[in-house]
Amino acid sequence: MKPTNSPKTYRVKSFGCQMNVYDGERMAEMLGERGIVPAPEGEDADLVVLNTCHIREKAAEKVYSDIGRLTKGKTQDKAPMIAVAGCVAQAEGEEIMARAPAVSMVVGPQAYHRLPEMLDRAVQGERATDTDMPAIAKFAALPERKRTNPASFLTVQEGCDKFCTYCVVPYTRGAEISRPYGDLVTEARKLVDAGAKEITLLGQNVSAWSGEDDKGHAVGLAGLIRDLAKVDGLARIRYTTSHPADMDDDLIAAHGEIDKLMPFLHLPVQAGSDRVLKAMNRSHTAESYLRLLERFRAARQDLALSGDFIVGFPGETDAEFEETLKLVDAVGYAQAFSFKYSPRPGTPAASMEGQVAKEVMDERLQRLQAALNRDQWAFNRATEGRTCEVLVERKGKHPGQWLGKTPWLQSAWFEGDVGIGDLVQVELVEAGPNSLAGRLRERVAA
Length: 446
Ligand code: SAH
Ligand code: SF4
Ligand code: F3S
Known about the structure:
There is one protein chain. The protein is 34% helix and 24% strand. The protein is α/β, with parallel strands linked by helices. It folds into three domains: 9-135, Rossmann fold; 138-382, pyruvate-formate lyase- activating enzyme, CATH 3.80.30; 387-443, CATH 2.40.50.140. Helix 2 (59-71) links the parallel strand 3 and strand 4. Helix 9 packs parallel to helix 11. The longest helix has 25 residues, at 358-382. The chain is globular, with a radius of gyration of 22 Å. The relative contact order is 0.08. The chain binds S-adenosyl-L-homocysteine (SAH), iron/sulfur cluster and FE3-S4 cluster. Residues 16-17, 19-20, 53-55, 86-87, 168-169, 172-173 line the site of FE3-S4 cluster (F3S).
Protein backbone atom coordinates (compact mmCIF):
# COMPACT_ATOMS: atom_id res chain seq x y z
CA MET A 1 0.00 0.00 0.00
CA LYS A 2 1.10 3.56 -0.65
CA PRO A 3 1.83 5.91 2.24
CA THR A 4 -1.10 8.21 2.83
CA ASN A 5 -2.16 11.24 4.87
CA SER A 6 -3.12 10.74 8.48
CA PRO A 7 -6.91 10.44 8.73
CA LYS A 8 -8.66 13.45 10.26
CA THR A 9 -12.12 11.96 10.66
CA TYR A 10 -13.39 8.51 11.59
CA ARG A 11 -16.56 6.45 11.71
CA VAL A 12 -16.90 3.31 13.86
CA LYS A 13 -19.67 0.93 12.79
CA SER A 14 -20.53 -1.66 15.44
CA PHE A 15 -22.52 -4.70 14.37
CA GLY A 16 -22.61 -6.94 17.43
CA CYS A 17 -23.59 -7.33 21.05
CA GLN A 18 -23.37 -4.70 23.77
CA MET A 19 -19.75 -5.61 24.42
CA ASN A 20 -19.04 -5.03 20.75
CA VAL A 21 -20.67 -1.60 21.12
CA TYR A 22 -18.55 -0.94 24.22
CA ASP A 23 -15.42 -1.88 22.26
CA GLY A 24 -16.51 0.48 19.48
CA GLU A 25 -16.81 3.33 21.98
CA ARG A 26 -13.36 2.59 23.37
CA MET A 27 -11.83 2.53 19.88
CA ALA A 28 -13.52 5.85 19.14
CA GLU A 29 -12.05 7.29 22.35
CA MET A 30 -8.56 6.18 21.31
CA LEU A 31 -8.93 7.77 17.91
CA GLY A 32 -10.20 10.91 19.66
CA GLU A 33 -7.02 11.00 21.78
CA ARG A 34 -5.11 11.13 18.52
CA GLY A 35 -7.00 14.23 17.45
CA ILE A 36 -9.14 12.35 14.94
CA VAL A 37 -12.77 13.48 15.14
CA PRO A 38 -16.04 11.70 14.30
CA ALA A 39 -17.12 12.35 10.72
CA PRO A 40 -20.22 14.56 10.79
CA GLU A 41 -23.49 12.81 9.89
CA GLY A 42 -23.79 12.43 6.14
CA GLU A 43 -20.13 13.27 5.46
CA ASP A 44 -17.35 10.94 4.36
CA ALA A 45 -14.93 9.61 6.97
CA ASP A 46 -11.18 9.29 6.28
CA LEU A 47 -11.06 6.15 8.41
CA VAL A 48 -13.85 3.58 8.77
CA VAL A 49 -13.68 0.93 11.48
CA LEU A 50 -15.96 -2.05 10.77
CA ASN A 51 -16.49 -3.52 14.24
CA THR A 52 -17.84 -6.91 13.26
CA CYS A 53 -19.84 -9.73 14.85
CA HIS A 54 -19.48 -13.45 14.09
CA ILE A 55 -22.34 -14.88 16.11
CA ARG A 56 -24.78 -15.81 13.33
CA GLU A 57 -25.51 -16.01 9.63
CA LYS A 58 -23.36 -14.55 6.97
CA ALA A 59 -21.52 -12.11 9.19
CA ALA A 60 -18.26 -12.51 7.28
CA GLU A 61 -19.91 -12.03 3.87
CA LYS A 62 -21.45 -8.85 5.19
CA VAL A 63 -17.97 -7.53 6.00
CA TYR A 64 -16.80 -8.16 2.43
CA SER A 65 -19.84 -6.47 0.96
CA ASP A 66 -19.33 -3.46 3.26
CA ILE A 67 -15.69 -3.25 2.21
CA GLY A 68 -16.80 -3.46 -1.43
CA ARG A 69 -19.34 -0.68 -0.99
CA LEU A 70 -16.79 1.55 0.72
CA THR A 71 -14.10 1.03 -1.92
CA LYS A 72 -16.45 1.36 -4.89
CA GLY A 73 -17.74 4.67 -3.58
CA LYS A 74 -21.26 3.39 -2.95
CA THR A 75 -21.18 4.22 0.74
CA GLN A 76 -19.18 7.43 0.43
CA ASP A 77 -17.60 9.42 -2.42
CA LYS A 78 -14.00 8.89 -1.44
CA ALA A 79 -12.61 5.50 -0.43
CA PRO A 80 -11.57 5.66 3.22
CA MET A 81 -8.81 3.86 5.06
CA ILE A 82 -10.48 0.66 6.40
CA ALA A 83 -9.91 -1.21 9.65
CA VAL A 84 -11.76 -4.46 10.37
CA ALA A 85 -12.21 -5.06 14.11
CA GLY A 86 -14.43 -7.31 16.23
CA CYS A 87 -15.13 -11.02 16.23
CA VAL A 88 -14.94 -11.65 12.46
CA ALA A 89 -11.50 -10.03 12.53
CA GLN A 90 -10.51 -12.48 15.27
CA ALA A 91 -11.90 -15.53 13.48
CA GLU A 92 -10.96 -14.69 9.90
CA GLY A 93 -8.21 -12.07 10.08
CA GLU A 94 -5.84 -13.80 7.67
CA GLU A 95 -8.54 -14.41 5.06
CA ILE A 96 -9.69 -10.81 5.24
CA MET A 97 -6.14 -9.56 4.62
CA ALA A 98 -5.77 -11.97 1.69
CA ARG A 99 -9.16 -11.31 0.13
CA ALA A 100 -9.54 -7.59 0.67
CA PRO A 101 -6.48 -5.56 -0.33
CA ALA A 102 -8.35 -2.34 0.55
CA VAL A 103 -8.21 -3.25 4.23
CA SER A 104 -5.22 -1.68 6.01
CA MET A 105 -5.78 -3.03 9.52
CA VAL A 106 -7.30 -6.15 11.06
CA VAL A 107 -7.58 -6.02 14.82
CA GLY A 108 -9.18 -8.56 17.18
CA PRO A 109 -11.42 -7.72 20.14
CA GLN A 110 -8.60 -8.25 22.66
CA ALA A 111 -5.97 -6.27 20.74
CA TYR A 112 -7.67 -3.03 19.80
CA HIS A 113 -5.64 -1.00 22.28
CA ARG A 114 -2.91 -1.29 19.63
CA LEU A 115 -5.04 0.41 17.00
CA PRO A 116 -3.12 3.74 17.23
CA GLU A 117 0.24 2.03 16.50
CA MET A 118 -1.34 0.11 13.66
CA LEU A 119 -2.69 3.37 12.32
CA ASP A 120 0.83 4.86 12.27
CA ARG A 121 2.00 1.89 10.24
CA ALA A 122 -1.00 2.10 7.93
CA VAL A 123 -0.20 5.75 7.22
CA GLN A 124 3.30 4.58 6.19
CA GLY A 125 1.62 2.18 3.75
CA GLU A 126 2.06 -0.96 5.85
CA ARG A 127 -0.84 -3.38 6.41
CA ALA A 128 -1.11 -4.83 9.90
CA THR A 129 -2.98 -7.66 11.62
CA ASP A 130 -3.19 -8.10 15.38
CA THR A 131 -5.35 -10.87 16.81
CA ASP A 132 -3.42 -11.54 20.03
CA MET A 133 -5.51 -12.09 23.15
CA PRO A 134 -3.95 -10.15 26.06
CA ALA A 135 -7.38 -9.23 27.40
CA ILE A 136 -6.37 -7.47 30.60
CA ALA A 137 -3.47 -5.57 29.02
CA LYS A 138 -5.99 -4.08 26.63
CA PHE A 139 -7.98 -2.34 29.36
CA ALA A 140 -4.88 -0.96 31.08
CA ALA A 141 -3.76 0.61 27.80
CA LEU A 142 -7.02 2.39 26.99
CA PRO A 143 -7.51 6.10 27.66
CA GLU A 144 -9.65 7.38 30.54
CA ARG A 145 -13.39 7.67 30.01
CA LYS A 146 -14.37 11.28 29.38
CA ARG A 147 -17.60 11.22 27.43
CA THR A 148 -20.55 8.92 27.66
CA ASN A 149 -24.31 8.42 27.38
CA PRO A 150 -26.68 8.59 30.37
CA ALA A 151 -27.04 4.81 30.01
CA SER A 152 -23.50 3.45 29.66
CA PHE A 153 -21.83 0.08 29.31
CA LEU A 154 -18.94 -1.15 31.41
CA THR A 155 -17.23 -4.42 30.46
CA VAL A 156 -16.38 -6.26 33.68
CA GLN A 157 -15.78 -9.76 32.37
CA GLU A 158 -14.77 -11.11 29.00
CA GLY A 159 -14.49 -14.41 27.25
CA CYS A 160 -16.27 -17.66 27.90
CA ASP A 161 -15.32 -21.13 29.10
CA LYS A 162 -18.78 -22.64 28.67
CA PHE A 163 -18.40 -23.91 25.11
CA CYS A 164 -22.05 -24.25 24.20
CA THR A 165 -21.78 -26.42 21.11
CA TYR A 166 -23.34 -23.84 18.73
CA CYS A 167 -21.36 -20.79 19.84
CA VAL A 168 -18.26 -19.00 18.50
CA VAL A 169 -17.72 -16.70 21.47
CA PRO A 170 -15.18 -18.91 23.32
CA TYR A 171 -13.10 -18.86 20.12
CA THR A 172 -13.41 -15.18 19.24
CA ARG A 173 -13.19 -13.73 22.76
CA GLY A 174 -10.98 -16.32 24.42
CA ALA A 175 -11.01 -17.68 27.97
CA GLU A 176 -13.02 -16.12 30.80
CA ILE A 177 -11.27 -13.27 32.54
CA SER A 178 -12.51 -10.83 35.18
CA ARG A 179 -11.27 -7.25 35.20
CA PRO A 180 -9.89 -6.18 38.59
CA TYR A 181 -12.31 -4.66 41.11
CA GLY A 182 -10.35 -1.42 41.55
CA ASP A 183 -10.26 -0.73 37.80
CA LEU A 184 -14.01 -1.20 37.58
CA VAL A 185 -14.83 1.10 40.48
CA THR A 186 -12.54 3.72 38.94
CA GLU A 187 -14.06 3.36 35.48
CA ALA A 188 -17.58 3.54 36.93
CA ARG A 189 -16.72 6.78 38.76
CA LYS A 190 -15.28 8.26 35.57
CA LEU A 191 -18.41 7.30 33.67
CA VAL A 192 -20.57 8.99 36.29
CA ASP A 193 -18.36 12.10 36.19
CA ALA A 194 -18.85 12.07 32.42
CA GLY A 195 -22.64 12.03 32.81
CA ALA A 196 -23.67 8.38 33.19
CA LYS A 197 -26.74 7.80 35.38
CA GLU A 198 -27.08 4.13 34.58
CA ILE A 199 -24.34 1.55 34.09
CA THR A 200 -24.86 -1.89 32.58
CA LEU A 201 -22.12 -4.27 33.64
CA LEU A 202 -21.21 -6.41 30.65
CA GLY A 203 -19.73 -9.86 30.26
CA GLN A 204 -20.33 -12.91 28.09
CA ASN A 205 -20.84 -14.59 31.46
CA VAL A 206 -21.12 -11.59 33.68
CA SER A 207 -22.29 -13.57 36.70
CA ALA A 208 -18.96 -15.46 36.63
CA TRP A 209 -17.15 -12.22 37.51
CA SER A 210 -14.95 -12.57 40.59
CA GLY A 211 -12.37 -10.39 42.23
CA GLU A 212 -10.92 -8.97 45.41
CA ASP A 213 -12.23 -5.79 46.96
CA ASP A 214 -9.94 -3.08 48.32
CA LYS A 215 -9.74 -4.88 51.68
CA GLY A 216 -8.54 -8.04 49.97
CA HIS A 217 -11.85 -9.92 50.42
CA ALA A 218 -13.07 -12.20 47.65
CA VAL A 219 -16.15 -10.71 45.97
CA GLY A 220 -18.52 -11.90 43.28
CA LEU A 221 -20.79 -9.92 40.99
CA ALA A 222 -23.26 -9.18 43.81
CA GLY A 223 -20.46 -7.70 45.93
CA LEU A 224 -19.31 -5.56 43.02
CA ILE A 225 -22.86 -4.31 42.44
CA ARG A 226 -23.21 -3.51 46.16
CA ASP A 227 -20.08 -1.38 46.09
CA LEU A 228 -20.93 0.33 42.80
CA ALA A 229 -24.31 1.23 44.31
CA LYS A 230 -22.33 3.45 46.72
CA VAL A 231 -21.00 5.59 43.87
CA ASP A 232 -22.67 9.01 44.23
CA GLY A 233 -24.58 10.12 41.19
CA LEU A 234 -25.03 6.60 39.85
CA ALA A 235 -28.76 5.92 39.92
CA ARG A 236 -29.19 2.60 38.17
CA ILE A 237 -27.24 -0.62 37.72
CA ARG A 238 -27.95 -3.48 35.35
CA TYR A 239 -25.91 -6.48 34.24
CA THR A 240 -25.91 -8.78 31.25
CA THR A 241 -25.52 -11.58 30.12
CA SER A 242 -25.82 -14.28 32.74
CA HIS A 243 -25.59 -18.02 32.43
CA PRO A 244 -27.97 -20.05 34.64
CA ALA A 245 -25.02 -22.05 35.99
CA ASP A 246 -23.36 -19.09 37.69
CA MET A 247 -26.27 -17.49 39.53
CA ASP A 248 -25.56 -17.62 43.25
CA ASP A 249 -27.65 -16.86 46.35
CA ASP A 250 -25.85 -13.59 46.88
CA LEU A 251 -26.86 -12.30 43.44
CA ILE A 252 -30.44 -13.41 43.97
CA ALA A 253 -30.49 -11.62 47.35
CA ALA A 254 -28.98 -8.50 45.79
CA HIS A 255 -32.11 -8.09 43.67
CA GLY A 256 -34.17 -7.77 46.82
CA GLU A 257 -31.74 -5.53 48.68
CA ILE A 258 -30.17 -3.01 46.32
CA ASP A 259 -32.57 -0.31 45.14
CA LYS A 260 -30.24 0.82 42.39
CA LEU A 261 -30.17 -2.67 40.88
CA MET A 262 -32.97 -2.52 38.32
CA PRO A 263 -35.73 -5.16 38.41
CA PHE A 264 -34.68 -6.85 35.19
CA LEU A 265 -32.93 -10.14 34.48
CA HIS A 266 -31.69 -11.34 31.10
CA LEU A 267 -31.14 -15.05 31.54
CA PRO A 268 -30.90 -17.01 28.28
CA VAL A 269 -32.32 -20.51 28.32
CA GLN A 270 -31.99 -21.29 24.56
CA ALA A 271 -34.50 -24.19 24.43
CA GLY A 272 -37.16 -26.00 26.42
CA SER A 273 -36.19 -29.59 25.69
CA ASP A 274 -33.73 -31.23 28.06
CA ARG A 275 -32.31 -33.41 25.29
CA VAL A 276 -31.62 -30.35 23.13
CA LEU A 277 -30.17 -28.46 26.10
CA LYS A 278 -27.79 -31.33 26.75
CA ALA A 279 -26.73 -31.48 23.10
CA MET A 280 -26.13 -27.72 23.31
CA ASN A 281 -23.87 -28.35 26.33
CA ARG A 282 -26.04 -26.08 28.46
CA SER A 283 -25.76 -27.26 32.04
CA HIS A 284 -29.40 -26.59 33.04
CA THR A 285 -32.68 -28.36 32.40
CA ALA A 286 -35.99 -26.62 31.70
CA GLU A 287 -37.04 -27.49 35.25
CA SER A 288 -33.86 -26.21 36.96
CA TYR A 289 -34.13 -23.00 34.95
CA LEU A 290 -37.74 -22.44 36.03
CA ARG A 291 -36.84 -23.13 39.65
CA LEU A 292 -34.02 -20.60 39.46
CA LEU A 293 -36.38 -17.95 38.09
CA GLU A 294 -38.77 -18.64 40.95
CA ARG A 295 -36.02 -17.83 43.43
CA PHE A 296 -35.28 -14.55 41.67
CA ARG A 297 -38.96 -13.66 41.61
CA ALA A 298 -39.25 -14.40 45.29
CA ALA A 299 -36.43 -11.91 45.96
CA ARG A 300 -37.89 -9.22 43.72
CA GLN A 301 -41.54 -9.62 42.84
CA ASP A 302 -41.72 -7.13 40.00
CA LEU A 303 -38.67 -8.61 38.22
CA ALA A 304 -38.98 -8.46 34.43
CA LEU A 305 -37.50 -11.45 32.66
CA SER A 306 -35.72 -11.67 29.36
CA GLY A 307 -34.12 -14.54 27.48
CA ASP A 308 -32.48 -15.82 24.31
CA PHE A 309 -33.74 -18.72 22.22
CA ILE A 310 -32.39 -20.77 19.35
CA VAL A 311 -34.82 -22.70 17.14
CA GLY A 312 -33.77 -25.54 14.87
CA PHE A 313 -30.69 -26.73 16.73
CA PRO A 314 -29.48 -29.91 14.93
CA GLY A 315 -31.81 -32.80 15.70
CA GLU A 316 -34.59 -30.65 17.25
CA THR A 317 -37.90 -32.39 16.59
CA ASP A 318 -41.35 -30.81 16.42
CA ALA A 319 -42.17 -32.21 19.85
CA GLU A 320 -38.95 -30.79 21.30
CA PHE A 321 -39.71 -27.40 19.82
CA GLU A 322 -43.16 -27.56 21.48
CA GLU A 323 -41.33 -27.81 24.80
CA THR A 324 -39.73 -24.44 24.10
CA LEU A 325 -43.21 -22.95 23.61
CA LYS A 326 -44.32 -24.58 26.84
CA LEU A 327 -41.43 -23.03 28.72
CA VAL A 328 -42.20 -19.61 27.23
CA ASP A 329 -45.79 -19.93 28.46
CA ALA A 330 -44.57 -20.89 31.91
CA VAL A 331 -42.22 -17.90 32.23
CA GLY A 332 -44.09 -14.99 30.65
CA TYR A 333 -41.09 -13.01 29.39
CA ALA A 334 -41.14 -9.22 29.37
CA GLN A 335 -38.95 -9.36 26.29
CA ALA A 336 -36.70 -11.88 24.53
CA PHE A 337 -34.45 -12.50 21.56
CA SER A 338 -34.92 -15.50 19.32
CA PHE A 339 -32.80 -16.79 16.48
CA LYS A 340 -32.65 -19.50 13.86
CA TYR A 341 -29.75 -21.83 14.51
CA SER A 342 -26.78 -20.85 12.38
CA PRO A 343 -23.91 -23.32 11.93
CA ARG A 344 -20.70 -21.59 12.95
CA PRO A 345 -17.47 -22.87 11.40
CA GLY A 346 -15.36 -24.83 13.88
CA THR A 347 -18.11 -25.37 16.48
CA PRO A 348 -19.20 -28.94 17.36
CA ALA A 349 -22.86 -28.40 16.40
CA ALA A 350 -21.94 -27.38 12.86
CA SER A 351 -20.99 -30.97 12.06
CA MET A 352 -23.80 -32.65 14.02
CA GLU A 353 -26.29 -34.83 12.20
CA GLY A 354 -29.89 -33.76 11.73
CA GLN A 355 -29.38 -30.17 10.55
CA VAL A 356 -32.88 -28.72 10.39
CA ALA A 357 -34.32 -27.44 7.10
CA LYS A 358 -34.59 -23.68 6.69
CA GLU A 359 -38.38 -23.78 6.15
CA VAL A 360 -38.84 -25.70 9.38
CA MET A 361 -36.72 -23.16 11.24
CA ASP A 362 -38.66 -20.29 9.67
CA GLU A 363 -41.94 -21.74 10.81
CA ARG A 364 -40.69 -22.44 14.34
CA LEU A 365 -39.21 -18.98 14.67
CA GLN A 366 -42.48 -17.43 13.58
CA ARG A 367 -44.46 -19.36 16.16
CA LEU A 368 -41.97 -18.64 18.91
CA GLN A 369 -41.87 -14.95 18.11
CA ALA A 370 -45.65 -14.74 18.06
CA ALA A 371 -45.69 -16.17 21.60
CA LEU A 372 -42.89 -13.87 22.79
CA ASN A 373 -44.53 -10.79 21.25
CA ARG A 374 -47.81 -11.70 22.89
CA ASP A 375 -46.11 -11.93 26.28
CA GLN A 376 -44.16 -8.72 25.80
CA TRP A 377 -47.33 -6.80 25.03
CA ALA A 378 -49.06 -8.41 28.00
CA PHE A 379 -46.17 -7.36 30.23
CA ASN A 380 -46.39 -3.80 28.91
CA ARG A 381 -50.14 -3.75 29.50
CA ALA A 382 -49.63 -4.96 33.07
CA THR A 383 -47.55 -1.83 33.78
CA GLU A 384 -50.21 0.54 32.37
CA GLY A 385 -51.36 3.01 34.97
CA ARG A 386 -48.16 2.80 37.00
CA THR A 387 -46.00 5.83 37.64
CA CYS A 388 -42.33 4.98 37.52
CA GLU A 389 -38.91 6.50 37.06
CA VAL A 390 -37.71 6.94 33.49
CA LEU A 391 -34.16 7.80 32.44
CA VAL A 392 -34.33 10.16 29.48
CA GLU A 393 -31.99 8.84 26.80
CA ARG A 394 -32.87 10.73 23.63
CA LYS A 395 -35.26 12.96 21.76
CA GLY A 396 -38.31 11.32 20.19
CA LYS A 397 -39.49 11.65 16.60
CA HIS A 398 -41.74 14.66 17.20
CA PRO A 399 -40.74 18.05 18.64
CA GLY A 400 -41.01 18.11 22.42
CA GLN A 401 -41.07 14.32 22.60
CA TRP A 402 -38.57 12.31 24.65
CA LEU A 403 -37.64 8.67 24.90
CA GLY A 404 -36.35 6.85 27.92
CA LYS A 405 -36.28 3.53 29.73
CA THR A 406 -38.41 2.35 32.62
CA PRO A 407 -36.82 0.27 35.41
CA TRP A 408 -38.08 -2.82 33.51
CA LEU A 409 -36.15 -1.74 30.39
CA GLN A 410 -39.28 -0.82 28.45
CA SER A 411 -39.06 2.14 26.09
CA ALA A 412 -41.37 4.93 27.19
CA TRP A 413 -42.04 8.15 25.28
CA PHE A 414 -43.65 11.31 26.58
CA GLU A 415 -43.69 15.08 26.17
CA GLY A 416 -42.40 17.73 28.54
CA ASP A 417 -39.69 20.10 29.57
CA VAL A 418 -36.84 17.69 30.29
CA GLY A 419 -33.33 16.97 29.00
CA ILE A 420 -31.22 13.95 28.11
CA GLY A 421 -29.91 12.32 31.29
CA ASP A 422 -32.81 13.48 33.48
CA LEU A 423 -34.53 10.99 35.75
CA VAL A 424 -38.23 11.76 35.72
CA GLN A 425 -41.44 10.30 37.08
CA VAL A 426 -43.68 9.20 34.23
CA GLU A 427 -47.15 7.71 34.34
CA LEU A 428 -47.40 4.85 31.85
CA VAL A 429 -50.62 5.65 30.05
CA GLU A 430 -50.89 3.36 27.05
CA ALA A 431 -49.03 0.16 26.29
CA GLY A 432 -48.02 -0.82 22.77
CA PRO A 433 -46.30 -4.03 21.70
CA ASN A 434 -42.81 -2.48 21.86
CA SER A 435 -43.13 0.68 23.92
CA LEU A 436 -45.41 2.72 26.14
CA ALA A 437 -46.83 6.19 25.87
CA GLY A 438 -46.41 8.11 29.10
CA ARG A 439 -47.31 11.35 30.83
CA LEU A 440 -44.64 13.37 32.64
CA ARG A 441 -45.46 13.71 36.34
CA GLU A 442 -42.40 15.32 37.85
CA ARG A 443 -38.66 15.60 37.57
CA VAL A 444 -36.67 13.89 40.27
CA ALA A 445 -33.20 14.88 41.35
CA ALA A 446 -30.47 12.48 40.21
N1 SAH B 1 -23.08 -15.21 26.60
C1 SAH B 1 -24.42 -15.06 26.35
C2 SAH B 1 -24.78 -14.60 24.95
C3 SAH B 1 -24.11 -15.21 23.81
S1 SAH B 1 -24.53 -14.68 22.19
C4 SAH B 1 -25.13 -16.34 26.77
O1 SAH B 1 -24.51 -17.32 27.08
O2 SAH B 1 -26.32 -16.37 26.81
C5 SAH B 1 -26.20 -14.19 22.26
C6 SAH B 1 -27.18 -15.19 21.79
O3 SAH B 1 -26.96 -15.53 20.44
C7 SAH B 1 -27.14 -16.51 22.50
O4 SAH B 1 -27.74 -16.47 23.75
C8 SAH B 1 -27.84 -17.42 21.53
O5 SAH B 1 -29.23 -17.38 21.74
C9 SAH B 1 -27.53 -16.78 20.18
N2 SAH B 1 -26.58 -17.60 19.42
C10 SAH B 1 -25.32 -17.89 19.72
N3 SAH B 1 -24.78 -18.70 18.78
C11 SAH B 1 -25.76 -18.94 17.87
C12 SAH B 1 -25.82 -19.72 16.68
N4 SAH B 1 -24.80 -20.42 16.26
N5 SAH B 1 -26.99 -19.73 15.99
C13 SAH B 1 -28.06 -19.00 16.43
N6 SAH B 1 -28.04 -18.27 17.54
C14 SAH B 1 -26.91 -18.24 18.27
FE1 SF4 C 1 -21.70 -18.70 23.89
FE2 SF4 C 1 -22.61 -20.41 25.67
FE3 SF4 C 1 -20.53 -18.88 26.27
FE4 SF4 C 1 -22.94 -17.81 26.03
S1 SF4 C 1 -22.31 -19.33 27.56
S2 SF4 C 1 -21.05 -17.02 25.17
S3 SF4 C 1 -23.85 -19.00 24.40
S4 SF4 C 1 -20.56 -20.48 24.73
FE1 F3S D 1 -20.88 -10.99 18.13
FE2 F3S D 1 -18.54 -11.20 19.21
FE3 F3S D 1 -20.52 -10.13 20.56
S1 F3S D 1 -19.48 -12.67 17.90
S2 F3S D 1 -22.26 -11.22 19.79
S3 F3S D 1 -19.60 -9.31 18.72
S4 F3S D 1 -18.92 -11.41 21.38
